[in-house]
Amino acid sequence: MSKFIDKFLDSMKLNDEDDYEYEDDYMYDEEEEEEQPKKSFFRREKKAAVPDDEPEMEPISRTRPRTASNVVPMRSATRGGMEVCMVKPGTIGDAREIVDTLLSGRAVVINMEGIPTEIAQKIIDFTSGACYSINGNLQKISNFIFIATPQSVELSGDFEDLMGGGN
């Protein structure tokens, strides 16, 4: 049985007998090689004096050239002056225009005169939700006129009392 295993190992070249031949060759190869000094990426090594017959070589730069940043600063929503938009919606779809105006940082005065009550209520509900989500404000000026403002605009006073509609 051991002869069978030896033949099998010989055919696969896994027998220990051949290892000695390879080790001898390997040992001679190591002695012939000269050790190269290891260069450190972070350390500077002292330069040895270079004989005159060999030209000096420039070190290779491993840093990437800086490129311009792709980040552009955004301007704040409040430009030099304040802009107030006047809107008289006709359909529920106009509520989207009101909210887009709020999102652009502008105040909106909404005139609901002549609009059916159900549609006006849906527009106010939609606008009120948008004002809440952007930390804005929605105030009633009169029975059919409202003002919606983004967070950057402060409203003060009671608008109904100012217009004479208060009780």
- Return the string of H and E elements: HHEHEHEEH
CATH class of the domain at 84-162: Alpha Beta
- Count of helical regions: 5
Give the overall pLDDT as a whole number: 73
CATH topology of the domain at 84-162: Translation Initiation Factor IF3
How much beta, percentage-wise?
5-15%
Oligomer: single chain
Keywords: Cell cycle, Cell division, Cytoplasm, Septation
Family: Belongs to the SepF family.
Subunit structure: Homodimer. Interacts with FtsZ.
Biased composition (Acidic residues): 20-35
Explain how this protein is built.
The chain is of the alpha+beta class and 167 residues long. Among the domains are: 2-28, no CATH class; 84-162, Translation Initiation Factor IF3 (2-Layer Sandwich), CATH 3.30.110. The protein is built from five helices and four strands, in the order ααβαβαββα. The chain has helices at residues 2-12, 19-32, 94-103, 117-133, 159-162, and strands at 84-87, 107-111, 137-140, 145-149. It has a four-stranded mixed β-sheet with strand order 1-2-4-3, with helices on one face. The N and C termini lie far apart (114 Å). The model is unreliable at 68-75 (pLDDT under 50).
